[in-house]
Predict the 3D structure of the following.
Amino acid sequence: MATSATPVNAVDLLQQALQSNIIPNQEFLLQGSILDSAAEHLLHRLRGLCDNVDTPPETFTDYEMCLSLKLPNEKTPVMTLRVRRAQDVDAPYQLRYIGQPELGDRTRPTLVRSSLDIACTPHVVEFLTEMGFRVDFEYITRGYMFRKGRMKVTVSKITKVNGSESISQSYLVELSVLAPTGQDAIAEDMRIFAEQLKPLVQLEKIDYKRFAQMP
């Protein structure tokens, strides 16, 4: 039976979803580190604070590469993307865009930046390479993941791709939430949760521009 409904293309649907604030396009983030010798104490604390307290924490091993697109004779890339592949489970590749941290209110308890995650096929790297993207660096992350409501906590070690030796004697600790635009209240929930992890680990906003300015 014929229909008179006007077809809607994918771009229109995406635009409508963004305007309706139903797509998680912002990442709220706090980061810190803990020495290997104290990591077991932090894992025990997280098991008590997070969901599914009676089950062991979820483990993960991910391969990740960072690719950038640069214009001729330009040092600063016009776009940077990340491709992640799980090495311990059968899952789609993940393509991720991460924007610059928002300046906004300096009293905001967390870093906030644009973030979009898309499941894709294994051909994504070949596709990006044909578009002109080049690999900047790659690494392996191994660690543990906990959840507390919408909040995700990861405790992980970063290692080189061609070896099992970690690049430091500490674990990277990240507390994050992916949420639609306009849900700034989650930042306060994250601050309260981070307070419960002290003094084992100090989670804070990281000023990446400060590192870029270092000689």
